[in-house]
Amino acid sequence: MSRRRRLCAVSVVVFGLVAVRPVLAHHSVSGVYDQKKQIVLKGVISKIEWLNPHIYIHLDVKENDGTLTPWQIETLPPNWMRNAGISKEAIYANAAEGEVVTVNAYEAKDITKHLGYLLRITYSDGHFIHVTGDPKDIAPSN
């Protein structure tokens, strides 16, 4: 099986694991993030904190004026990702080479914090890791 097909299959499994709303509620995702407001960010993954209770992906987003804005994108616990066959290395991909990824996330209610809750990461070659939310609701990237 090709890497792309394997990642797509893993994405479907992860979606199946997290599609149930009560799972999201126990960590107060809705208390911190606006689940009606999806943002699309393009940037380079600079670091991944693969820690409990949730993983944080650090994304450096280049603004129009050239400055970098660091974003923290929260996602599921490491054990959930491992059970779905997603590793830290799979998420990090080609970040060391400066690969720009597109991140779909729910934005934090306090927008000054530059926080998001991960829905999907799309890589430059087109493959993606879909973590949560209805795939039909993913906002298109520009």
Tell me what the CATH architecture is: Beta Barrel
Number of domains: 1
Tally of strands: 6
Amino- and carboxy-terminal Cα gap: 30 Å
> What is the share of helical residues?
25-40%
State the fourth-level CATH superfamily: Nucleic acid-binding proteins
* Computed Rg: 14 Å
Strand fraction? 35-45%
Question: pLDDT below 50 for ≥5 consecutive residues: which ranges?
Answer: 19-26
What's the CATH class label?
A: Mainly Beta
Please provide the ordered H/E string of secondary-structure elements.
HHHEEEHHEEE
Task: Please state the average pLDDT score.
Answer: 85
The dominant shape is globular
Number of helices: 5
Which sequence of strands runs across the widest sheet?
1-2-3-5-4
| Helix vs. strand class | alpha+beta
- The CATH topology is given as OB fold (Dihydrolipoamide Acetyltransferase, E2P)
Largest sheet: 5 strands, mixed, barrel
Question: What does this 3D model show about the protein?
Answer:
The structure is a single chain. This protein is of the alpha+beta class and 142 residues long. It has a single domain (3-137), classed as Nucleic acid-binding proteins (OB fold (Dihydrolipoamide Acetyltransferase, E2P), Beta Barrel), CATH 2.40.50.140. It has five helices and six strands, in the order H-H-H-E-E-E-H-H-E-E-E. The chain has helices at residues 3-18, 21-25, 29-32, 78-83, 88-92, and strands at 33-49, 56-62, 68-74, 100-108, 115-122, 128-130. It has a five-stranded mixed β-barrel with strand order 1-2-3-5-4. The longest helix has 16 residues, at 3-18. It is globular. The termini are far apart.
